[in-house]
């Protein structure tokens, strides 16, 4: 078996146009007052990788175009649909009206471990990720359908938001059996 690194033209990358018309994973990512432009860019890039429907940038979360978002997004701000909302609460209530199941990633009383949560086919999910210091606002937790936390065993008990998004999206993607190659 040859383990030669693939060349860029062998990776079967979609064009932006092909991405826009491709079937999407039924997930909207909601960023609640995320301050790091690099985190925002990384979430765009991860959203592109998993064919996420859209990203909702809320509160003081910066929006494209911005050179520091672009630096980590590597063009994903062009492929992934996004909207900006002044209020996270407004965005989440709109998603609820549109029949999305609202899942907040936060350590709360009564939260469900990611390992024990199984998304349902044909259900739209909105995944809410919060500020790097303060997390998701309590008013958003209060209107969420479910709170999920990623099991952690060290001394920090928090992940960088971009890492959290990657872990959760991979988990949802594999549990929904959307992956066609593996």
Question: Your description of this structure?
Answer:
The structure is a single chain. By secondary structure, the protein is an alpha/beta fold. The protein has a single domain, classed as 3-Layer(aba) Sandwich (Alpha/beta knot), CATH 3.40.1280. It contains seven helices and seven strands; from the N terminus they run αβαβααβαβββαβα. α2 runs parallel beside α3 and α2 packs parallel to α7.
Main features:
34% helix, Alpha/beta knot, alpha/beta
- Total of domains: 1
Rg: 16 Å
What percent of residues are in strands? 15-25%
Instruction: Give the overall average pLDDT.
Output: 94
- Helix segment tally: 7
The topology string of helices and strands comes to HEHEHHEHEEEHEH
Enumerate the spans where pLDDT stays under 50 for 5 or more consecutive residues: none
Termini Cα gap: 18 Å
Which CATH architecture is right?
3-Layer(aba) Sandwich
Q: Briefly, what CATH class?
A: Alpha Beta
- Number of DSSP strands? 7
Helix content: 25-40%
Structural class: alpha/beta
Shape: globular
What can be said about the biggest beta sheet? 7 strands, parallel
Structure described in brief:
The protein has 182 residues and is an alpha/beta fold. Helix content is 34%, strand content 20%. The chain has helices at 16-21, 37-49, 67-73, 76-79, 88-97, 138-143, 161-175; strands at residues 25-32, 52-58, 81-85, 101-105, 112-113, 125-130, 146-149.
